[in-house]
Amino acid sequence: QVQLVESGGGLVQAGGSLRLSCAASGRTFSSGAMGWFRQAPGKEREFVAAIGWSGGTPYYADSVKGRFTISRDNAKNTVYLQMNSLKPEDTAVYYCAADPQVYSLVVRNTADYWGQGTQVTVSS
Question: Which residues contact 64 (CB under 8 A, 6 or more apart)?
């Protein structure tokens, strides 16, 4: 079993920055993909970003390209999401996800493991 624990959410003004962290425990994920999804009130969950096991080419939703950066530290079993130039429409619960295949995260928008989520609120 794998546990994913997110941290770093909070309230920030538009134009500000936040960094989310997701720590994985129970199993090493150096060989798996990790990513972030978000769900705003009344909306479906949507893909935000993902990164493969080697940390190679990251994948981003068009809505966050150029503003968000995903990275990972396999030694710490942790993935990060640096969010800059935040907008009110970025307000959502952000979920960490992990799966053996980056294809599952990016294309199928599914994952074997999910975190509990962390709230990000951007005020205008």
Answer: 48, 49, 83, 90
